[in-house]
Automatic annotation (TrEMBL):
Record bears the keyword Nucleotide-binding: no
Source taxonomy: Eukaryota, Viridiplantae, Streptophyta, Embryophyta, Tracheophyta
Pfam families linked to this entry: CorA
Record-annotated membrane-spanning stretches: 334-358, 378-399
Keywords: Membrane, Transmembrane, Transmembrane helix
Official protein name in the record: Magnesium transporter
SUPFAM superfamilies according to UniProt: CorA soluble domain-like (SSF143865), Magnesium transport protein CorA, transmembrane region (SSF144083)
Family assignment from sequence similarity: Belongs to the CorA metal ion transporter (MIT) (TC 1.A.35) family.
Annotated organism of origin: Erythranthe guttata (Yellow monkey flower)
Length: 439
């Protein structure tokens, strides 16, 4: 009995020590080397339209439950390797290095990595640029892990019935929204986070992630359209100073470059999302209505691509108008300069002629017979040089006229010879056949 009791104490001690070691390992694994570098959100959904915030454990759901873990990378001057280190810090373990690199790498991708469906739409621009978009997801049957660069509007969830107007102070005349806040709201093509329908399945959540990404792109396209309309209105009202400032700031070439970056992100989505739909359609846990929703999102992003193309054409047309205006300004200045040269060129010729250091210049009272022919000789040399220069300019035109005349003469001569030979060959037959020619 004592032996069993000792063994029992030993077993309990081993269990406690093993649990302590396991807890210490878990704490070591989840200890952050970059605290505060990224924002993390974790939700658990019960499959019946309810959700709860949960701890960052990266565990999968059970039964109808499924989990969503979102990492928001900072928009700054970090390199891609730094962003990868941040992800490794928060996702490893249980994710492997291959899984993490597939989420953070540049370019479009859709495929299976370690049994999970991974897709990403990551542009290769600098992380600090507002036209650099990154969204990636790792999808399994009971969990979704997403990574974004910066905040994506409407991606998260907030308690229902909490409208944005509740955060705006009321004044005596009612609710007063400031102008910059209203301008921001007018650029949003989507509802608030409180109005998001709570996903009931992983397929609903995947559609929600892609839908918010497309809405994010649509927001930027709307902002560009509003900015372009404002610039066109200012150009119509503005004058020389405004147009000169736009040319100096290279406003439209920069806008065109931003449009090309945005167009690249949209093209990546156009490549990836059809493949996501194709791969998800083979999953039994992906609902058919969500497949149709993905098809609608693919159509939206294609229309968005066409819209960005129209905006790029508008920017090109405005830039062409500014270039023509600048050329007109340069031509006007050249006209004034040529008018001044017309005035001062004869004066410079007169001063040059009468300022020559030779003898025999008229009206200068030089009576020395040894140098009286100097002026005449210099003027003869100048006239000869002028004739040579004019001949160099006129010679190509004269040569082309002479060659054209010779060509016409040769063609006229050959035509007359052919006509005579044809008349000799057909003269007898004309008489015999009554004036008809053989065809």
């Amino acid at each position: 009995m004592e032996l069993n009791h000792v063994n029992g104490e030993t077993d309990d001690t081993d269990i406690e020590s093993s649990s302590t070691q396991r807890n210490s390992r878990e704490n070591h694994f989840h200890h952050s080397s970059y605290p505060g570098a990224v924002r993390q959100k974790a939700y658990i959904f019960d499959g019946e339209g309810n959700y709860y915030n949960k701890e960052w454990t990266l565990e999968q759901g059970r039964g109808k439950e499924f989990c969503w873990y979102h990492v928001e990378l900072p928009k700054g001057n970090q390199k891609l390797s730094h962003l990868a280190q941040y992800l490794i810090d928060v996702l490893c373990p249980p994710l492997k290095l291959q899984d993490i690199l597939s989420l953070v790498s540049n370019g479009p991708f859709c495929g299976y990595v370690d049994g999970a469906l991974v897709f990403r739409v990551n542009s290769a621009g600098p992380a600090s640029s507002k036209f650099t978009f990154r969204i990636a997801a790792r999808v399994t049957e009971n969990s979704v892990i997403t990574v974004s660069l910066g905040r994506v509007p409407r991606l998260g969830f907030s308690p229902a019935n909490e409208s944005l107007l509740s955060e705006i102070p009321k004044e005596r005349g009612g609710i007063v929204i400031r102008e910059h806040v209203l301008d921001f709201l007018l650029t949003m093509n989507h509802s608030e986070e409180a109005d998001n329908p709570v996903p009931r399945s992983v397929s609903n959540l995947v559609v929600h992630v892609i839908d918010t990404h497309v809405d994010h792109l649509q927001d930027f396209v709307t902002k560009l359209e509003i900015e372009l309309d404002t610039v066109e209105f200012e150009m119509d009202r503005g004058g020389f100073a405004l147009k000169k400032q736009m040319l100096d700031d290279r406003k439209f070439p920069k806008m065109h470059l931003d449009l090309q970056r945005l167009l690249q992100v949209i093209a990546h989505g156009e490549q990836v999302f059809p493949r996501v739909k194709e791969k998800c359609s083979s999953k039994d846990w992906f609902a058919p209505e969500d497949i149709n929703a993905l098809e609608e999102l693919i159509g939206r992003i294609r229309r968005l691509k066409e819209n960005v193309g129209f905006i790029a054409n508008r920017v090109t047309a405005i830039q062409a108008g500014l270039d023509s205006w600048q050329a007109e300004q340069i031509n006007r200045k050249l006209y004034y300069l040529s008018f001044l040269s017309i005035i001062f060129l004869p004066l410079s010729i007169i001063t040059g002629v009468f300022g020559m250091n030779v003898g025999g210049v008229p009206w200068t009272g030089q009576r020395d017979p040894t140098i009286k022919d100097g002026f005449r000789n210099v003027m003869m040399v100048c006239v000869a040089m002028l004739g040579i220069v004019l001949l160099c300019f006129i010679f190509p035109a004269i040569y082309s006229r002479v060659m054209t005349w010779r060509r016409r003469r040769v063609l006229r001569k050959s035509w007359s010879l052919n006509r005579k030979s044809f008349a000799r060959r057909t003269g007898g037959e004309r008489i015999e056949r009554g004036g008809y020619l053989r065809l």
